[in-house]
Design a protein that fits this description.
By secondary structure, this protein is α/β, with parallel strands linked by helices. It has a single domain, classed as TIM Barrel (Alpha-Beta Barrel). It has twelve helices and eight strands.
């Protein structure tokens, strides 16, 4: 009887894709198996469902929502409440992808205790499965504390958008020998502190290659060249839902902005010229 029950549960789980859920050990294993990791941002349930069904490994609920959703100039105004809300939305659209949520500016900088509390909120209230924080040497102990609480941590080094004012804008990091040594050591220390992966943003491809070979955890690049263990892009950039000039590292795969503009103009013209709604879009007493 117990044997039959086991097989019933096994096939039921397989049918609803529980067995295919991507978890932290699966992500770490990809580096060992020399398989690339695919990560994209999402900020709502519908987009997350599309990205999940396309087979993406990790969906990042990024504090980039400050730029692409809220219309802010930087990520700095984003709050922990914003992140919890959008992470919860994304969780509703996901069956297989791993959900990682950004810890926004000042959600972890003031103290390790506050960092653990806010990371816990992203897990408990937002249903994230790991958290990401931008790392300097000062936050290595923070990684350890969050990880010790049972929360997986993804590090982020290089160009850190939350350090916008310190860096003097969005500038490529790690260009000289001193910075190169510092970032290699920081990546190793991030692994030692307990991070399961590291995002490398806005650094030369040579440095990213050296860091990737220096650590046993996966590296995920954005503007860091092809030698990382995976890549991440902002979904709005990938599908063309943006304004202004895009960074060099972005590749746009479709122009949704143009398609949407044409659709809205067509709708507007139909309304103005009484072509919409037509009989087929209307109800009557007879049907």
């Amino acid at each position: 009887m117990l044997f039959c029950w086991f097989f019933f549960v096994f096939f039921a789980c397989k049918k609803i894709n529980i067995m295919n859920k991507i978890r932290v050990p699966d992500i770490v294993r990809k580096k060992k198996d020399n398989k690339k990791i695919v990560m994209l941002t999402s900020y709502d349930a519908i987009t997350a469902r599309i990205v999940d069904q396309a087979g993406v490994d990790i969906i990042l609920v990024g504090d980039s929502l400050g730029n692409v959703v809220q219309g802010q100039d930087t990520t700095l105004p984003v709050t922990i409440e914003d992140m919890i809300y959008h992470t919860r939305l994304v969780s509703r659209g996901i069956k297989n992808s791993h959900i990682c949520s950004d810890m926004p500016f000042m959600s972890y900088q003031s103290s390790r205790e506050k960092a653990v509390e806010n990371a816990g909120r992203l897990i408990k209230e937002g249903f994230a499965e790991s958290v990401k924080l931008e790392i300097t040497e000062e936050y290595l102990e923070t990684i350890h504390s969050i990880n010790k609480a049972g929360i997986p941590v993804m590090g982020h080094i290089g160009l850190c958008p939350q350090s916008y004012h310190v860096m003097g804008g969005y500038k490529i990091q790690g260009r000289d020998k001193r910075e190169t040594k510092r970032y290699i050591k920081l990546a190793k220390d991030t692994e030692t502190a307990g991070a399961y992966s590291i995002v490398l943003e806005g650094i030369p491809l040579e440095l990213a290659k050296e860091i990737t070979s220096s650590v046993s955890i996966p590296t995920i690049g954005i503007g860091a060249g092809p030698h990382c263990d995976g890549q991440v892009l902002v979904i709005n950039d990938l599908v063309g839902l943006h304004t202004g000039k895009m960074p060099k590292f972005v590749k746009q795969y479709v122009d949704f902005r143009d398609l949407m503009t044409k659709a809205v103009k067509s709708y507007s013209a139909d309304v103005i010229n009484s072509r919409f709604p037509a009989d087929g879009n209307s109800f009557s007493w007879s049907n």
